[in-house]
Specification:
This protein folds into two domains: 113 residues, Aminotransferase class 4, branched-chain amino acid transferase, N-terminal domain (D-amino Acid Aminotransferase, Chain A, domain 1); 141 residues, D-amino Acid Aminotransferase, subunit A, domain 2 (D-amino Acid Aminotransferase, Chain A, domain 2, Alpha-Beta Barrel), CATH 3.20.10.10. The longest helix has 15 residues. The strands form three sheets. Strands 9, 10, 11, 12, 13, 14, 15, 16 and 17 form a nine-stranded mixed sheet that branches. Strands 2-1-8-5-3-4 form a six-stranded antiparallel sheet. Strands 6-7 form a two-stranded antiparallel ribbon. Strand 6 and strand 7 form a beta hairpin. By secondary structure, the protein is an alpha+beta fold. It has seven helices and 17 strands.
Length: 279
């Protein structure tokens, strides 16, 4: 059978690949115990990053955040950074993808109760095709607050059901993403991205104190001095010139938040794009 796909594109019908314990299997292969704490409790962390031109983007930032999450949850004995980088390279070659979406998932492994973890953490890495970038999106403010005092605040925890519920709720109402406020009414983050608000051509983003994820692109924009952290409230959206979100898959202009309308382009958005492209 001939393979008439374009170079760097996944073969039709090919299931995503998974790296686990130094071997590559297909995603329909069993990788976790039925007693795994990640499966039963959402106890774990994960990272999603992109590969462009067969190179993982912002890999150092992602691995630092992964380690912070593992330290927070006291999950030890996981593969080191060089091993994970090697796993990504192996998957990119095996999948024959130029651009791809990578997910690293880590849990403490199987355990007999919430208080008793096992002694062998589970770590696996998946690769799949990279979906086309969104041209723009819309946000719906959801009624459930982000708990900025949660022990999981700020890390990319596997306990993601709340975000998934909010995303489905927003989609059911015709919006692209869900916007959370924290328990004090400040803007926090979107269900799957960080939010940035442009006021008088200045790019502002909620502080980590709002419970938002320490996003890698968010980190880069703040470090480069392109964006500034501050407390933001819904009223600030009424003063905004533009709004955009960032996640590991890119920067997306926001053209609507609830009943507010924003332009899809602005000089500030262009500055932010240029800054993250340099990473």
């Amino acid at each position: 059978m001939t393979d008439d796909r374009a170079p760097g594109q996944p073969a039709r019908g090919r299931p995503p690949l998974v790296w686990i314990d130094g071997r590559v299997v297909t995603a329909d292969s069993p990788v976790a115990s039925a007693l795994d704490h990640g499966l039963l409790l959402g106890d774990g962390v994960f990272e999603v990053l992109v590969v462009r031109g067969r190179r993982p983007v912002m890999i150092d930032r992602h691995l630092r955040r992964l380690r912070r999450g593992l330290d927070r949850l006291a999950i030890h004995g996981t593969p080191d950074d060089p091993t994970l980088i090697g796993a990504i390279d192996t998957l990119v070659a095996a999948a024959d993808l130029d651009d791809a979406r990578i997910r690293i998932t880590v849990s403490p492994g199987a355990g007999v109760s919430p208080r008793q973890r096992g002694d062998r953490p589970l770590c696996f890495v998946t690769i799949d095709h990279l979906a086309p970038a969104l041209a723009s999106t819309t946000l719906m403010t959801v009624p459930w607050p982000r708990n900025e005092r949660s022990p999981l605040a700020g890390i990319k925890a596997s306990a993601w059901a709340e975000n998934a519920f909010a995303l489905r709720h927003a989609a059911a109402h015709g919006f692209g993403n869900a916007l959370f406020l924290d328990t004090t009414g400040r803007l926090s983050e979107c269900a799957s991205s960080n939010i940035f608000v442009v006021i008088d051509d200045e790019i502002l983003t909620p502080t980590l104190g709002s419970g938002c994820l320490a996003g890698t692109m968010r980190e880069a924009l703040v470090e480069h001095g392109v964006a500034r952290e501050c407390d933001l409230r819904p009223a600030d959206l009424h003063r905004a010139d533009a709004v955009f979100t960032t996640s590991s898959t890119g920067l997306v202009p926001v053209v609507g938040v609830d009943d507010l309308v924003f332009p899809p382009t602005s000089p500030a958005i262009d500055r932010a794009r240029a800054a993250v492209a340099s990473e």
